[in-house]
Amino acid sequence: MAELEDGWRYAPAAVSHMYWRRKEQFQFACDTYREWVLFAVTEGRFRYRIEERSGEAGFGDVVFCPAGAAFHREVVHPVSFHFYHFRWVPVASARGAEPRPVGAVHVLDHSRLAATYSYMEQLRAADEERRLAGVQELFRDVWGLMCLEAGAAERLSGTEAGTAIDPEMEEAALWIRRHAFEPLRMKDYSAGKRMSAVQLTRRFQAVWGQTPMEYLTSLRIERAKTLLLETRLTLDDIAVQCGYENGFYLSRVFKKKVKTAPSQYRRMHSL
């Protein structure tokens, strides 16, 4: 959040919202907007360039673009995302706020983020007034989560605790995101980096607040949710696309994390 005087700062307020499903390409490779916009990715990946910032965005990433800035983008894998126009408005709050972001911000708490996206999904059938009110409230929740994590990252960076971000663990998180839906074993990754599985787990959790397997599972479960709602694939087929051996194992993990069976989730949330 951008800070003002006397304990006031700016926070984003949604003006409009749209959800795009599995876009294979953007209508325009580059576009500009009269207001700030953000893309909150729920599935797939796309490349972007905004001012001097560039990179790839996938699940867990929220990409901010200022009003009037050129937003270059290209789909890497069919991408689904929440698209917001928003404005910055002053709100009363404590000091120590984060500046307005440009480019991608990665949300670490995938479980909470996935739950928020699930609530947004449930609003699809609501009337327009209720839907817009609901997504604006959830939009504020995502922003609050990013600010909480930004504060934790500042402490880890040494401004408060005198420690440093672990670049090897940032690399590990990127590797997991890139290979999340393939059969993989974290011990193979740790061996390649000449560290034990215990060392990897301890260092990863110190930076990201969760173990590598928890991080991987959150990505796979979110993809499973999308495939359950947007396709008629069998559970075994979905399991393979999420990096699991079979539907039985996926069902066991899904039920543990989501507190409901995949078949029940599909019935409850499909229109």
Q: Could you characterize what this model shows?
A:
Keywords: Activator, DNA-binding, Transcription, Transcription regulation. With 271 residues, the chain is α+β, with helices and mostly antiparallel strands. It folds into two domains: 8-157, Sandwich (Jelly Rolls), CATH 2.60.120; 167-269, Homeodomain-like (Arc Repressor Mutant, subunit A, Orthogonal Bundle). 45% of the residues lie in helices and 25% in strands. The chain has nine helices and seven strands; from the N terminus they run βββββββααααααααα. Strands 1, 2, 3, 4, 5, 6 and 7 form a seven-stranded antiparallel β-sheet that branches. A hairpin with a 2-residue loop joins strand 3 (36-50) and strand 4. Helix 3 (167-179) crosses helix 5. The protein is globular and about 50 Å long. It starts with 7 loop residues before the first strand and ends with a helix.
Helices and strands in order:
Blueprint: E1 8-23, E2 30-31, E3 36-50, E4 53-57, E5 61-65, E6 71-92, E7 103-106, H1 110-122, H2 128-157, H3 167-179, H4 186-192, H5 197-208, H6 212-230, H7 235-241, H8 247-258, H9 262-269
Antiparallel strand pairs: 1-6, 2-6, 3-4, 3-5, 3-6, 5-7
Helix pairs in contact: 1-2, 3-5, 3-6, 6-7, 6-8, 6-9, 7-8
